[in-house]
Design brief:
The chain is mainly α and 123 residues long. The protein has one domain. The chain is built from four helices and no strands. Bound molecules: protoporphyrin IX containing FE. The site of protoporphyrin IX containing FE (HEM) has 20 residues, from helix 1, helix 2, helix 3 and helix 4.
Length: 123
Protein backbone atom coordinates (compact mmCIF):
# COMPACT_ATOMS: atom_id res chain seq x y z
CA UNK A 1 0.00 0.00 0.00
CA UNK A 2 1.12 3.57 -0.73
CA UNK A 3 2.56 5.84 2.02
CA UNK A 4 -0.29 8.31 1.48
CA UNK A 5 -2.91 5.61 2.01
CA UNK A 6 -1.25 4.70 5.34
CA UNK A 7 -1.32 8.38 6.30
CA UNK A 8 -5.08 8.57 5.53
CA UNK A 9 -5.61 5.42 7.63
CA UNK A 10 -3.57 7.10 10.41
CA UNK A 11 -5.76 10.23 10.21
CA UNK A 12 -8.99 8.15 10.24
CA UNK A 13 -7.74 6.34 13.35
CA UNK A 14 -6.99 9.64 15.08
CA UNK A 15 -10.46 11.02 14.22
CA UNK A 16 -12.24 7.86 15.46
CA UNK A 17 -10.25 7.84 18.71
CA UNK A 18 -10.95 11.51 19.42
CA UNK A 19 -14.70 11.15 18.74
CA UNK A 20 -14.86 8.10 21.03
CA UNK A 21 -12.97 9.83 23.85
CA UNK A 22 -15.11 12.95 23.48
CA UNK A 23 -18.35 10.93 23.45
CA UNK A 24 -17.54 8.99 26.62
CA UNK A 25 -16.17 12.01 28.50
CA UNK A 26 -19.14 14.27 27.73
CA UNK A 27 -21.55 11.50 28.77
CA UNK A 28 -19.56 10.95 31.99
CA UNK A 29 -19.80 14.66 32.83
CA UNK A 30 -23.60 14.31 32.69
CA UNK A 31 -24.06 10.87 34.26
CA UNK A 32 -22.21 8.51 36.65
CA UNK A 33 -23.89 5.49 35.03
CA UNK A 34 -21.86 4.30 32.01
CA UNK A 35 -24.68 1.87 31.12
CA UNK A 36 -27.02 4.84 30.62
CA UNK A 37 -24.96 5.82 27.57
CA UNK A 38 -27.17 4.65 24.67
CA UNK A 39 -24.19 4.93 22.30
CA UNK A 40 -21.77 3.03 24.55
CA UNK A 41 -21.24 0.07 22.18
CA UNK A 42 -20.68 2.45 19.24
CA UNK A 43 -18.04 4.55 21.01
CA UNK A 44 -16.23 1.44 22.25
CA UNK A 45 -16.10 0.05 18.69
CA UNK A 46 -14.87 3.43 17.40
CA UNK A 47 -12.25 3.47 20.18
CA UNK A 48 -10.99 -0.01 19.35
CA UNK A 49 -10.96 0.64 15.61
CA UNK A 50 -9.30 4.03 16.07
CA UNK A 51 -6.46 2.72 18.24
CA UNK A 52 -5.86 -0.11 15.75
CA UNK A 53 -5.93 2.12 12.64
CA UNK A 54 -3.45 4.56 14.21
CA UNK A 55 -1.02 1.67 14.63
CA UNK A 56 -1.70 0.20 11.17
CA UNK A 57 -1.21 3.58 9.48
CA UNK A 58 1.75 4.49 11.67
CA UNK A 59 3.75 1.31 11.17
CA UNK A 60 2.82 1.32 7.50
CA UNK A 61 4.28 4.80 7.10
CA UNK A 62 7.29 3.82 9.19
CA UNK A 63 8.01 0.95 6.80
CA UNK A 64 7.64 3.27 3.81
CA UNK A 65 9.93 6.00 5.14
CA UNK A 66 12.55 3.35 5.93
CA UNK A 67 13.30 4.81 9.35
CA UNK A 68 13.30 1.41 10.99
CA UNK A 69 17.07 0.84 11.39
CA UNK A 70 18.02 -0.50 14.84
CA UNK A 71 14.70 -0.39 16.70
CA UNK A 72 12.36 2.64 16.70
CA UNK A 73 13.51 6.15 15.79
CA UNK A 74 13.66 8.41 18.88
CA UNK A 75 10.72 10.59 17.79
CA UNK A 76 8.42 7.56 17.68
CA UNK A 77 8.65 6.80 21.43
CA UNK A 78 6.70 9.88 22.64
CA UNK A 79 4.11 9.08 19.93
CA UNK A 80 3.73 5.54 21.25
CA UNK A 81 3.36 6.88 24.83
CA UNK A 82 0.72 9.39 23.68
CA UNK A 83 -1.09 6.61 21.78
CA UNK A 84 -1.10 4.39 24.90
CA UNK A 85 -2.28 7.27 27.10
CA UNK A 86 -5.15 8.18 24.74
CA UNK A 87 -6.08 4.52 24.24
CA UNK A 88 -6.11 3.92 28.02
CA UNK A 89 -7.93 7.16 28.86
CA UNK A 90 -11.27 5.60 27.82
CA UNK A 91 -11.41 3.76 31.14
CA UNK A 92 -11.16 6.89 33.28
CA UNK A 93 -14.09 9.25 32.64
CA UNK A 94 -16.64 7.63 34.99
CA UNK A 95 -14.15 7.68 37.87
CA UNK A 96 -14.30 11.49 38.26
CA UNK A 97 -16.20 14.24 36.39
CA UNK A 98 -13.29 16.71 36.65
CA UNK A 99 -11.08 14.03 35.10
CA UNK A 100 -13.53 13.69 32.19
CA UNK A 101 -13.26 17.41 31.47
CA UNK A 102 -9.47 17.28 31.80
CA UNK A 103 -9.31 14.40 29.28
CA UNK A 104 -11.56 16.25 26.80
CA UNK A 105 -9.27 19.31 26.95
CA UNK A 106 -5.97 17.38 26.98
CA UNK A 107 -6.73 14.87 24.18
CA UNK A 108 -6.55 17.37 21.27
CA UNK A 109 -3.34 18.84 22.75
CA UNK A 110 -1.79 15.36 22.86
CA UNK A 111 -2.80 14.84 19.22
CA UNK A 112 -1.05 18.09 18.29
CA UNK A 113 2.02 17.01 20.25
CA UNK A 114 2.10 13.63 18.47
CA UNK A 115 1.83 15.40 15.11
CA UNK A 116 4.72 17.69 16.16
CA UNK A 117 6.98 14.69 16.80
CA UNK A 118 6.05 13.21 13.40
CA UNK A 119 6.60 16.44 11.46
CA UNK A 120 9.70 17.85 13.21
CA UNK A 121 11.32 14.59 14.46
CA UNK A 122 13.24 16.56 17.16
CA UNK A 123 15.34 13.52 18.14
C1 LIG B 1 -2.66 9.09 19.08
C2 LIG B 1 -1.46 8.97 18.63
C3 LIG B 1 -0.95 9.57 17.34
C4 LIG B 1 -1.26 10.74 16.70
C5 LIG B 1 -2.28 11.77 17.12
C6 LIG B 1 -0.42 10.83 15.51
C7 LIG B 1 -0.43 11.89 14.62
C8 LIG B 1 0.31 11.92 13.45
C9 LIG B 1 0.19 12.93 12.42
C10 LIG B 1 -0.80 14.10 12.46
C11 LIG B 1 1.06 12.62 11.43
C12 LIG B 1 1.23 13.32 10.09
C13 LIG B 1 2.28 14.31 10.09
C14 LIG B 1 2.43 14.81 8.63
O1 LIG B 1 1.46 15.32 8.07
O2 LIG B 1 3.53 14.63 8.10
C15 LIG B 1 1.75 11.44 11.85
C16 LIG B 1 2.73 10.84 11.11
C17 LIG B 1 3.31 9.68 11.49
N1 LIG B 1 3.01 8.92 12.61
FE1 LIG B 1 1.66 9.30 14.00
N2 LIG B 1 0.35 9.71 15.44
C18 LIG B 1 0.05 8.92 16.52
C19 LIG B 1 0.58 7.72 16.87
C20 LIG B 1 1.51 7.09 16.12
C21 LIG B 1 2.00 5.77 16.42
C22 LIG B 1 1.56 4.90 17.61
C23 LIG B 1 2.92 5.49 15.47
C24 LIG B 1 3.67 4.21 15.45
C25 LIG B 1 3.93 3.49 14.55
C26 LIG B 1 2.99 6.63 14.54
C27 LIG B 1 3.82 6.74 13.45
C28 LIG B 1 3.81 7.79 12.55
C29 LIG B 1 4.67 7.86 11.37
C30 LIG B 1 5.70 6.83 10.95
C31 LIG B 1 4.36 9.04 10.71
C32 LIG B 1 4.95 9.57 9.38
C33 LIG B 1 6.16 10.41 9.63
C34 LIG B 1 6.78 10.84 8.31
O3 LIG B 1 6.20 10.68 7.26
O4 LIG B 1 7.87 11.37 8.35
N3 LIG B 1 2.11 7.60 14.97
N4 LIG B 1 1.27 11.03 13.07
Amino acid sequence: MDYTVYKLIHYLGIALLLVAIGGVCIHAVNSDDKKANAARRLVLVMHGLGTFLILLGGFGMLAKIGEQGMGFPGWLWPKLIIWAALAGSIGLPYKDRKLSLAIVITAPILVLLSAYFAVFKPF
